[in-house]
């Protein structure tokens, strides 16, 4: 892969010589690795449902249970406003942002596959602790282990998929991570819908079943091949060539393998990859890939809806069954969005999906805010027609997110970093993502209580800002080989003024 600014453009323009076939071995590797997304998705889906279950609230949060039942069929933005309850959700993401730096070291020195296996073990332990929890402290400890699994999995899986995929289908392959995330959310919602009727331990079953995707990921990870990029990075050239030939389905891999070796030689000169991220030649990747996109992905407000869909619907007057069923519908829309993105993102491009879906998300947020402002007063029953409209509106929002910021928030950063800073860059991506995920998770119910419908106007304004960010600063990366992405910065109207002179002045290492 590319050495970023370290390798001269003329030496890297040989991607047209790459050859590949879609082999069963390649499909197996990508599908198994993508199971890492199901860990993230299952937790996203299960945590919001569990926090709305009466049996769970009675055991750990009796004050919230009493407040909920005092306004059971009424709108009350503050039903679930409890900071310890939200810490149950957000503690996982605080843990993930810390462990991702350890994951970076493992990913770089031991390989992407090793991080996937470590992540599955940590997630399995967390699921067991949560299922057996006797007090809030045990819940939080279990969530921290789950966070370790998310930190390792989200660090390694997007890199693994991007490095294994040929450039022409990299978008679709990388989005297997988002698809399994969405499927994990959907499965979790179906499970919550069923376990909510099992008293008094149904919530334990919901949390404990997280061991299933963790076990599948662990067993599959044992049989996964390491990526050729990582093997070259570790100096295992013969093995790297064999794996590359096997995943590409051809022995004609000289051009691609030469790029891998060139990039590895350049990467070995980098002793401090995190410090290297701060250099001018890596400024676009830092601003767009490591900071902007992962932060904005959370500021869409989508994960708040995923965390708290049952809670939101109950706050707006839906019954427990109806709120869980509504969240199943919205998460079904998320899966549809992911499938649309997988099918079309390599044809229409990343920017088109970001901008079109962003416009739709802004419109939906405004519509929801206006509806709540006009039709809802605290303590009033929810009109059935308004309830149906809200479910449809949130489905449209989820569908837009599911084909744009959801999958592309992981795909685009994984495409931008050169090999010498790729593990470090992905660590920052995961860290920033988890910081904002944790902050939004911790603050959302309080913000819903105090801002009421204004929270949706806030998210709509943020989507407008991030759409402008994409429009002005992100070049199109569809079907551009990772080893040539850095050339986009040299031709971009803004970034060429920052990286152009430095990159053009480099000679091949």
Automatic annotation (TrEMBL):
<dbReference type="InterPro" id="IPR003663">
    <property type="entry name" value="Sugar/inositol_transpt"/>
</dbReference>
<feature type="transmembrane region" description="Helical">
    <location>
        <begin position="173"/>
        <end position="191"/>
    </location>
</feature>
<dbReference type="InterPro" id="IPR020846">
    <property type="entry name" value="MFS_dom"/>
</dbReference>
<feature type="transmembrane region" description="Helical">
    <location>
        <begin position="386"/>
        <end position="406"/>
    </location>
</feature>
<feature type="transmembrane region" description="Helical">
    <location>
        <begin position="286"/>
        <end position="312"/>
    </location>
</feature>
<dbReference type="Pfam" id="PF00083">
    <property type="entry name" value="Sugar_tr"/>
</dbReference>
<dbReference type="InterPro" id="IPR045262">
    <property type="entry name" value="STP/PLT_plant"/>
</dbReference>
<feature type="transmembrane region" description="Helical">
    <location>
        <begin position="352"/>
        <end position="374"/>
    </location>
</feature>
<feature type="transmembrane region" description="Helical">
    <location>
        <begin position="427"/>
        <end position="447"/>
    </location>
</feature>
<dbReference type="GO" id="GO:0016020">
    <property type="term" value="C:membrane"/>
</dbReference>
<keyword id="KW-0769">Symport</keyword>
<feature type="transmembrane region" description="Helical">
    <location>
        <begin position="453"/>
        <end position="474"/>
    </location>
</feature>
<keyword id="KW-0762">Sugar transport</keyword>
<feature type="domain" description="Major facilitator superfamily (MFS) profile">
    <location>
        <begin position="29"/>
        <end position="478"/>
    </location>
</feature>
<keyword id="KW-0472">Membrane</keyword>
<protein>
    <submittedName>
        <fullName>Sugar transport protein 14</fullName>
    </submittedName>
</protein>
<feature type="transmembrane region" description="Helical">
    <location>
        <begin position="84"/>
        <end position="107"/>
    </location>
</feature>
<comment type="similarity">
    <text>Belongs to the major facilitator superfamily. Sugar transporter (TC 2.A.1.1) family.</text>
</comment>
<dbReference type="InterPro" id="IPR044778">
    <property type="entry name" value="MFS_STP/MST-like_plant"/>
</dbReference>
<feature type="transmembrane region" description="Helical">
    <location>
        <begin position="203"/>
        <end position="224"/>
    </location>
</feature>
<keyword id="KW-0812">Transmembrane</keyword>
<keyword id="KW-0813">Transport</keyword>
<dbReference type="InterPro" id="IPR005828">
    <property type="entry name" value="MFS_sugar_transport-like"/>
</dbReference>
<feature type="transmembrane region" description="Helical">
    <location>
        <begin position="22"/>
        <end position="42"/>
    </location>
</feature>
<feature type="transmembrane region" description="Helical">
    <location>
        <begin position="139"/>
        <end position="161"/>
    </location>
</feature>
<dbReference type="GO" id="GO:0015293">
    <property type="term" value="F:symporter activity"/>
</dbReference>
<dbReference type="InterPro" id="IPR036259">
    <property type="entry name" value="MFS_trans_sf"/>
</dbReference>
<feature type="transmembrane region" description="Helical">
    <location>
        <begin position="324"/>
        <end position="345"/>
    </location>
</feature>
<dbReference type="GO" id="GO:0015145">
    <property type="term" value="F:monosaccharide transmembrane transporter activity"/>
</dbReference>
<keyword id="KW-1133">Transmembrane helix</keyword>
<feature type="transmembrane region" description="Helical">
    <location>
        <begin position="114"/>
        <end position="133"/>
    </location>
</feature>
<dbReference type="InterPro" id="IPR005829">
    <property type="entry name" value="Sugar_transporter_CS"/>
</dbReference>
């Amino acid at each position: 892969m590319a050495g970023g600014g370290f390798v001269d453009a003329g030496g890297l323009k040989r991607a047209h010589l790459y050859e590949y076939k879609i082999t069963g071995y390649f499909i197996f590797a990508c599908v198994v690795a993508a199971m890492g997304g199901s860990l993230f998705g299952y937790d996203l889906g299960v945590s919001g449902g569990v926090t709305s279950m009466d049996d769970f609230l009675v055991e750990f949060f009796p004050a919230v249970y009493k407040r909920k039942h005092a306004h059971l069929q009424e709108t009350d933005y503050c039903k679930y406003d409890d900071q310890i309850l939200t810490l149950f959700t957000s503690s996982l993401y605080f843990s993930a942002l810390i462990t991702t730096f350890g994951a970076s070291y493992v990913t770089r020195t031991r390989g992407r596959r090793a991080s996937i296996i470590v992540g599955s073990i940590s997630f399995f332990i967390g699921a067991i602790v949560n299922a057996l929890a006797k007090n809030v402290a045990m819940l939080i400890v279990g969530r921290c282990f789950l966070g370790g699994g998310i930190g390792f999995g989200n660090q390694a899986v997007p890199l693994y998929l991007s490095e294994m995929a040929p450039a022409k289908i990299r978008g679709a392959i990388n989005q297997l991570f988002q698809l399994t995330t969405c499927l994990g959310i959907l499965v979790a919602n179906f499970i919550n819908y069923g376990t909510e009727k099992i008293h008094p331990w149904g919530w334990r079953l919901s949390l404990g079943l997280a061991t299933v995707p963790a076990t599948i990921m662990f067993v599959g990870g044992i049989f996964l091949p390491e990526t050729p990029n990582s093997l070259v990075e570790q100096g295992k050239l013969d093995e790297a060539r064999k794996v590359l030939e096997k995943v590409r389905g051809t022995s004609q891999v000289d051009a691609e393998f030469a790029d891998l070796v060139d990039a590895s030689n350049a990467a070995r000169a980098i002793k401090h990859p995190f410090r290297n991220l701060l250099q001018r030649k890596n400024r676009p990747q830092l601003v767009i890939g490591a900071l902007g996109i992962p932060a904005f992905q959370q500021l869409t407000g989508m994960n708040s809806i995923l965390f708290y869909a049952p809670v939101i619907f109950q706050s707006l007057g839906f019954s427990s069954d109806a709120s869980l069923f509504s969240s199943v519908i919205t998460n079904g829309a998320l899966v549809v969005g992911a499938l649309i993105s997988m099918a079309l993102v390599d044809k229409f491009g990343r920017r088109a999906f970001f901008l079109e879906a962003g416009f739709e998300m802004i419109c939906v947020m405004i519509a929801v805010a206006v509806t709540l402002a006009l039709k809802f007063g605290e303590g009033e029953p929810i009109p059935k027609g308004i309830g149906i409209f809200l479910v449809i509106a949130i489905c449209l929002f989820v569908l837009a997110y599911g084909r744009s910021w959801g999958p592309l928030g992981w795909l685009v950063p994984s495409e931008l970093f050169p090999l010498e800073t790729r593990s470090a860059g992905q660590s920052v991506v995961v860290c920033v993502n988890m910081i904002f995920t944790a902050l939004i998770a911790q603050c959302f119910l309080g913000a819903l209580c105090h801002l009421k419908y204004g929270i949706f106007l806030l998210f709509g304004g943020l989507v407008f800002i991030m759409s402008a960010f994409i429009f002005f600063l992100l070049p199109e990366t569809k079907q551009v080989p990772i080893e040539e992405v850095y050339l986009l910065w040299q031709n971009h109207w803004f970034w060429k003024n920052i990286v152009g002179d430095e990159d053009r002045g480099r000679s091949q290492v």
